[in-house]
Write a structure and sequence with these properties.
The complex is a heterotrimer of chains A (about 290), B (about 500) and C (about 325). Chain B has about 500 residues and is an alpha/beta fold. Chain B is about 40% helix and about 20% strand. Chain C has twelve helices and eight strands. Classes of the chains: A alpha/beta (about 290), B alpha/beta (about 500), C alpha/beta (about 325). Chains A and B meet through helix 2 and helix 4 of A and helix 2, helix 4 and helix 15 of B.
């Protein structure tokens, strides 16, 4: 009786609620700490990115139009499914080089961060909205509204917590996301795509692309239908160029100073201000009369 | 503990059918066979179900059939003391030591369990209290889950709710709730208290304690540390014992204005914090440019939803004279289409009156309306033989001085008055010691905004009525009470700021 | 508003009288709150009908159906088959009533007339440049006359949406009155094409204009656009009919058309009709469904009630 052979997983992209291979057909090798081959990840192309933005744009109206309660429920569901699949996520991180205890801590932080942001869905409006006492017979109020399609460049490390920390606040605020995963360690992030797809997240709300950042970032920065870009995972020497390119359609450019703050600060690695980064502010006037 | 199966009550047939009913919808009864009730419930103290000190239990009946549903324990001062001690111990030793993000997770668990058991809870709520299954299923239970979800999210975010202040819990909260939305009121009370780090002793209303007991089972299933939530059943005496217990830091009461005032007197001179949510006699104001058919729906919903057992019910209709005839005519036609009967029937719109005592109160006030000279209109619907029932009713030709225009009836009875100008409407609407809610119907935005700025009520609905949401603060002005439940404002009663 | 509405005698055309009535229609107009209307429609859709009451409703629904085929590729053969189905929807159950009408394009009317002779099923035809209505009034009038002459006893016309949306209500009103006159003895259904109107306010307004101009029935849709009949739109139209009845004493019929494919939905419409209008409207003289595939779903539901088993489409003819 010969030993049982395992069925190896194929790591694909996550676009519009589906798992296509990159249209370019290209791959790149993902290696472990000792240089061993872990997987051939998709080398995402500009066309994949283009398709992802189309999907994100199409999904935006529906996602932004959901009640805050509904969005919160979906984020909580993501946490539930992550919890159920924690072992798998821990294993992906461990394979990519993290010590077991560290991998475990990272996955727990990921789950807790989803729960944290789920709880903000129906509260940040009360924090950042207002009724303004203008000097005239007008009712005047300000409400936050989601910015639109957000491009997120996830940090290299921590490959899962970093990604989740940057996309969760965009999502809970009603935005849709196209994210480029950690280049060297994409595997856990790619698995997260499966979590999203089984957590009632509508197709196109979150899109994940693995690939070479230097190939994808310039296209993201220049895309006229991306409304904001999160540069947290962009190599520091490339940030100024991204900022300049982003000016073409006045993208909001957001950056989280991971080096200074870290990812585990309950007050500063997460919070409502991260949501506010991806909100616009609308003020309305209406006369008060009879 | 023995269990009893709940049988579908086929005996709830209406009386002789009206001869002109063309289309009889056959009974469409919600099934009850998946629901198992204990024949007897004990007190939930320190995470366990314990027998009452007095060894006395009382009946909880189904007001639609007068049949016994279950027995519920009667807590005396001894039990109250035990519950408060458990709450104090849990507060000092356990709950305030748990990280806020982990507290949140307990509360999320409770929310999820309510969702999982939603249908069973809705069925029991209907059986115990008499409200239509379509309301307990579509309103009470989902909102209860939503309240727990909403406040769970605040548990680890309190520093954002109160800028520039250090936030601490109050301690042990004693909470007394009414019989009109039993499970929902329990959620309104428990969720914010727990989120802010307090522990709770809750006393449900004596005619509707069963869903509170099911909530206790859910709390056990959620593994909430023992003593964080204690539920003690009983009547007025139990509530009084809780209110006057020295080791309770805060009292939250929803119920009648009379009892609210009594509680306020009792607490005088103590350091206990207090919030009250009391009665109302809400004006529902319809202007000539209102979307008329929808306004009529709003009027109907405002007073007949939950049989009018609603503190914020729109019980005084103010209709602009120019459209009074049309509105009253439409109201008459619409009232006739209300289906009154077996609350377990999915097609029932108006269920049973919660208790014999309440039915007597309603009858007495309706008689006074007739005696004082108002013109009565009552639905000609057939009412079941057994149980407590009152046909949807409205009075026209009502003067502001009539008892039916002043006193809270808490039943399916509407008083209709007219007005000519907005100023008159505002004056008459505000001319009451109450101030819980109000409704305004007009297509004109500027008028809505003006009316809402002048109406003295804690909740105002424009072009809608009886809408509730966990993010939306609810509470009254004047003798309708003070303090808010829901929203960011709903945290305030449960925290100490320093 | 005039206390009594004077219907012009057939064959006459009195613009002065009718112009006064447009003002009457607009006087009865008022806003409709969309959120509340949709809520009411949804709550009526939650009614649960079982057993006898369900069977009664389903049979009534069949008797109210205008079995419809309106395609460029309709032929005599197609229409003949449809008429057989209309007269005997389920040959295995002779207790099932015939439908209310067969609805076709004008050129098909003679074949329908022949096929339906003596059956009691009405002969309905569209006219007036259906579905867009974007042709000259003279053509519309002529088409109506010719279609009635060919044997149609019911005419389904479309209103001029372009005129309506640009605020030219007089034109809309006058055209309906002219078509009504051209109908002669045939009854007139006026299609508002609610899917092209901006909101429920406009639906109410169009309903009132159509009724004051002489419609016997008001109808939601042509079935040829993206959004056809919905429960809230039907509710708003019924409320307008109710108000019109109160003001004039005249009972106008209502026909939702397009998008009603399931028995369950059809029953929701009937519940809405019953609870909004009362028993008087619960007959084919005052309510019709414009449908095609609905019939088989209703037949399947009826057979399920009879046999206790869920049905398959294989056992019911397509036409």
């Amino acid at each position: 009786m010969s030993p049982r052979l395992s069925v190896r997983k194929t790591y694909k992209l996550y676009i519009n609620g589906e798992f296509p291979r990159t249209e370019s057909g290209r791959f790149y090798a993902v290696t472990g700490k000792g240089g061993e081959l872990l997987a051939n990840a998709c080398r995402g192309s500009r066309k994949d990115l283009r398709n992802a933005v189309v999907a994100a744009r199409k999904a935006f109206g529906g996602w932004a139009g959901k009640t805050a309660y509904n969005r919160g429920q979906i984020l909580y569901r993501i946490a539930e499914v992550c919890e159920a699949r924690a072992a798998e996520l821990v294993e992906e991180l461990r394979r990519q080089g993290a010590p077991a205890a560290e991998a475990r801590r990272e996955v727990e932080s990921v789950i807790d961060r989803w729960v944290y942001y789920a709880g903000w869905s129906d509260k940040y409006t009360q924090m950042f909205g207002s009724v303004n006492p203008v000097a005239g017979p007008y009712y005047n109020f300000t409400v936050p509204e989601p910015t639109g399609v957000i491009g997120v460049i996830a940090p290299e490390q921590p490959s899962l917590l970093g990604l989740v920390s940057r996309i969760a606040p965009a999502l809970v605020g009603g935005n849709t996301v196209v994210a480029v995963t950690s280049e060297k360690q994409p595997l856990a992030a790619v698995t997260m795509g499966e979590v999203f797809e089984t957590s009632d997240v509508p197709a196109g709300v979150i899109n994940l692309l693995s690939g070479i950042k230097s190939e994808l970032v310039p296209w993201m920065a220049a895309h006229m239908d991306v409304n904001a870009i999160d540069t947290t995972g962009v190599p520091s020497e490339a940030i100024a160029t991204v900022q300049k390119t982003a000016a073409e359609n006045v993208k909001r450019v957001v950056h989280f100073d991971a080096a200074a703050i870290g990812w585990d600060d309950h007050r500063r690695s997460q919070g409502p201000y991260a949501i506010l980064d991806f909100q616009e502010s609308k003020t309305v006037w209406h006369p008060i009369g009879m | 503990m023995t269990t009893t199966e709940i049988q579908t009550r086929e005996r709830l047939t209406p009386g002789p059918a009206s001869s002109s009913v063309l289309w009889e919808y056959a009974p469409s009864l919600e099934s009850t066979d998946h629901v198992k009730l204990a024949s007897r419930y004990n007190l939930f103290i320190g995470g366990k179900f314990v027998e009452p000190h007095s060894k006395k239990w009382f009946e909880s009946i189904n007001p639609a059939t007068e049949e016994r549903l279950a027995e519920v324990a009667e807590a005396d001062a001894h039990d109250v003391d035990r519950a408060v001690s458990e709450a104090r111990r849990a507060y000092e030793k356990v709950w305030r030591k748990i990280a806020p993000s982990e507290r949140a997770k307990y509360i999320y668990r409770i929310a999820r369990l309510i969702q999982e058991k939603a249908r069973a809870l809705a069925v029991v709520e209907t059986l115990d209290g008499g409200k239509p299954i379509k309301e307990s299923r579509d309103v009470d239970v989902p909102l209860a889950a939503a309240h727990f979800f909403y406040y769970a999210g605040w548990a680890d975010k309190l520093e954002y709710a109160f800028p520039n202040r250090t936030v601490s819990p109050v301690g042990v909260a004693g909470q007394i709730i009414p019989w009109n939305f039993p499970l929902l009121m329990a959620a309104w009370k428990i969720a914010p208290a727990l989120a802010a780090g307090n522990t709770v002793v809750l006393k449900p209303a004596e005619t509707t304690s069963v869903t509170a007991m099911l909530l206790a089972e859910i709390i056990q299933e959620a593994d909430l540390p023992p003593g964080v939530v204690n539920i003690i059943t009983g009547a007025g005496a139990t509530g009084a014992a809780l209110v006057s217990h020295d080791d309770v830091d805060k009292i939250a009461f929803t119920g009648s204005t009379d009892v609210g005032k009594r509680i306020q007197r009792t607490l005088a001179g103590t350091k206990k914090k207090l919030t009250l949510e009391l009665g109302g006699k809400a004006p529902n104001i319809v202007f000539e440019d209102a979307p008329l058919d929808q306004a009529v729906e709003g009027i109907i919903n405002g007073i007949y939803f939950n049989q009018g057992h609603v503190c914020c019910a729109g019980s005084r209709l103010f209709v602009q004279e120019s459209v009074a005839e049309a509105v009253i005519r439409k109201l008459r036609e619409r009232v006739q289409t209300l289906r009154v009967g077996n609350p377990l029937d999915k097609n029932t719109d108006v269920g049973a009156i919660n208790s014999k005592a309440q039915l007597e109160k309603i009858r007495e006030l309706v008689e006074s309306g007739v005696d004082e000279g108002a013109e009565i209109f009552q639905s000609s619907c057939a009412l079941p033989q057994r149980g407590f029932w009152f046909a949807p009713t409205f009075f026209t030709g009502v003067s502001a001085s009539y008892r039916i225009a002043q006193e809270e009836i808490f039943g399916p009875v509407l008083s209709v008055l007219t007005f000519r100008t907005p100023e008159e409407a505002i004056e008459k609407a505000n001319n009451t010691p109450y101030g819980l809610s109000a409704g305004v119907w007009t297509e004109k935005g500027s008028r809505i905004l003006n009316m809402v700025s002048k109406l003295r009520a804690g909740v105002i609905w424009a072009n809608t009525y009886n809408k509730f949401d966990p993010t939306s603060p609810f509470g009254g002005y004047k003798e309708s009470g003070f303090g808010r439940e829901g929203g960011l404002h709903g945290l305030a009663p449960y925290v100490v700021l320093s | 508003m005039s206390e009594s509405l004077i219907t012009p005698p057939a064959g006459s055309f009195a613009p002065a009288l009718l112009r006064r009535s447009l003002a009457d229609a607009l006087e009865m107009d008022h806003g409709v709150d969309a959120v509340a209307a949709e809520e009411r429609a949804n709550s009526l859709a939650k009614r649960s009908l079982k057993k006898d009451s369900k069977v009664w409703g389903l049979r009534l629904a069949i008797s109210m159906m205008d079995l419809t085929t309106l395609e460029g590729k309709d032929t005599r053969g197609k229409v003949h088959a449809l008429c057989q189905k209309a007269m005997r929807p389920d040959p295995s159950d002779p207790t099932i009533p015939h439908v209310g009408a067969v609805c076709v394009y004008p050129t098909m009317v003679p074949f329908v007339r022949q096929a339906l002779k003596g059956s009691g099923v009405h002969i309905a035809s569209v006219a007036t440049g259906f579905p867009s209505g974007q042709t000259f009034t003279s053509i519309k009038v002529q088409e109506t006359r010719d279609t009635v002459a060919a044997g149609a006893d019911e005419i389904d016309m479309v209103i001029d949406r372009g005129a309506f949306l640009s605020g030219n209500y007089q034109k809309v009103f006058d055209e309906i009155a002219e078509i009504k006159e051209a109908c002669g003895p045939a009854h007139l259904k006026v299609i508002l094409e609610t899917g092209e109107l901006a909101n429920y306010d406009q639906v109410r307004r169009a309903s009132l204009i159509a009724m004051f101009a002489g419609a016997d029935f008001i109808k939601t849709s042509t079935g040829k656009v993206a959004v056809n009949a919905t429960l809230p739109v039907t509710l708003v139209m019924l409320e307008a009919i109710r108000d019109f009845h109160h003001a004039t004493g005249k009972k106008i019929g209502m026909k939702p058309a397009g998008g009603i494919a399931t028995a369950k939905l059809a029953l929701s419409y009937l519940v809405m009709l019953y609870e909004t209008m009362g028993p008087d409207w619960m007959n084919p003289d005052l309510f019709r469904f414009g449908a095609s595939s609905l019939l088989n779903d209703v037949l399947m539901q009826l057979r399920k009630e009879r046999t206790g088993a869920y049905q398959s489409g294989d056992y019911f003819t397509l036409d």
